[in-house]
Amino acid sequence: MFFTGNVPRWGIWEMSFNVTLQKGNPFDVCFRAVLSKDDRKLTVFGFYDGDSPDGGAVFKLRFMPYCEGEWHYQTVCDLPELDGHTGGFMCVRPETGSHGVARVHGSHFIYDDGTPLYPIGTTCYAWIHQPEALRRQTLETLKSTRFKKIRMCVFPKHYDYNHNEPEIYPFAGGPDQFDYARPNPFFYKLLEESIFNLSRLGIEADLILFHAYDRWGFSKMDEACNLRYLRYAVARLSCFSNVWWSLANEYDLLPHLDTQAWETFAQIIREADYARHLISIHNCVEFYDHNKQWISHCSIQRQDVYKTAEYTDKWLSDYKKPVVLDETGYEGDINWGWGNLSAQELTRRAWECFVRGGYPGHGETYLSPDEVLWWSKGGALKGESHQRFGFLLKICEEAGGIALLPERCWWDLPVGGIENRVYIAYFGFNRPGFREFYSDEPRLAKNNFPKGDYRVEIIDTWNMSITDCGVMPYNKLRVELPGRQYMAVRITPV
Fold first, then answer.
1. Rounded to whole angstroms, what are the CA distances from 421 to 282, 401, 418, 426?
2. Domain CATH number, residue 304
3. Backbone angles phi and psi of 472, in degrees to 5
């Protein structure tokens, strides 16, 4: 996981220092290093990683080199034992499967090496706070899916079906007396191992830094503790290429944190995260202002019980940023309306989001006597929608990204795609027996496809099948359909 000699590009270089501390809180020590290569310089913050067996305090530096060649470092600290250390390492070619950090690319995402990323993901809030056997099962389940992102909390969660105590806490102490001024290095080792295991599966870890579902006091720490926690988390975790920062899940349920507090948190992350990972903030009811410059993409929850995906193209237009619908509801059978959708309805919402240019999120909340629900604790998936999300990702990859194409839409039918390359029309809960994509009627003529021949395919989004209908000329695009719901048509210029 960590390297001290030759470091692969986008791997993690680590350097440890063992020092003697006389007094004070080691988490308040400002330890950093200036990393340089040629004429490039940047600051990397170190962190306290607990005590060594001989009683010394262990401080570490970590860095994810983003270009090959020789790097040099020099440490800076008020403690003489940590100040003025110099050295270097060689960054070599990346390991197989390593693509770097995810970046925004227009309304989509791309890795540092140019590989597209389609972050169709799932939610599993408190999986790292479960026993080891359940964590292993969660990873095995993820290995069998095609999810590219997972939403997960740094802090444990207290809510329906989330009543167990974690085995290890993010801060020193325990439920009777936490010391919020002292993060727990042993917890962060567990978190780091989990992030690393996700990276081996090609999954981005969308880390939720704050949330309101809490009985331990983590959601109500004072400002100094909040800032110390953020600086520590970023210093430890920004070296992982597959990390995303989510400032909050449902930020508007934390009324004691006002806009200025969130802006301060964002500034701290931006100052400390040399890798510039993606960063967002998630709503319950009221949207945060996604126009803020620090917000890389829109992380959105449904706005009412039924509609969200239908607004995807509007949010893309309003904010000029990628739209990730992290919560459109969950497949399951719990009592809450957001958690008892059928697999067909969640799949429909996912396709509605996709064809309008966004990225949908999956979740599952089936009742279980042991209260192990995927959305909260992970384990095994019981539903049917996750396979359909994998099929959707396949279609997305084949399309090479997608955006709503208003000039190709009819009043009753959204059409997405890439102009002159691929077009996908989605019928959702409608079930026509045929569809004509050409019209001489003036008000619809603008929706006709450019002159030429097109290969036409019927996509059954539920049964996950593709039927080739052959090649048709632009002015005879009539597609015979099976009269079932959840159908799509893919039209590709020949």
1. 33, 11, 5, 17
2. 3.20.20.80
3. -135, 145
Q: 457: burial class by Cβ within 10 Å (0-12, 13-18, 19+)? A: middle
For the whole model, what pTM was predicted? 0.97
What DSSP letter does each residue of 253-294 carry, written as one string?
A: G-TTS-HHHHHHHHHHHHHH-TT---EE-B-SSSPP-TTSTT
pLDDT of residue 444: 83
| Residue-number span of the structural domain to which 41 is assigned | 7-92
Q: What pairs with residue 7 in β-bridges?
A: 91
Backbone angles phi, psi at 441, to 5 degrees: -70, 125
Indicate the SS3 state at residue 59.
strand
pLDDT 10s digits, 101-152 = 999 999 999 999 999 999 999 999 999 999 999 999 999 999 999 999 999 9
Measured CA to CA, the distance from residue 85 to residue 75 in angstroms comes to 5
Report yes or no on 1 lying in a domain: no
Other CB atoms within 10 A of residue 289 CB: 9
Strands 422-426 and 403-404: unpaired
Residue 5: the pLDDT is 86
Q: pLDDT band for 176, please (50, 70, 90 cuts).
A: confident
Percentage with pLDDT > 90 across the chain: 93
User: What gap in Å lies between CA 64 and CA 91, rounded to an integer?
Assistant: 9
CB-hemisphere CA count at 13 Å for 32? 17
Is residue 52 located within the same domain as residue 174? no
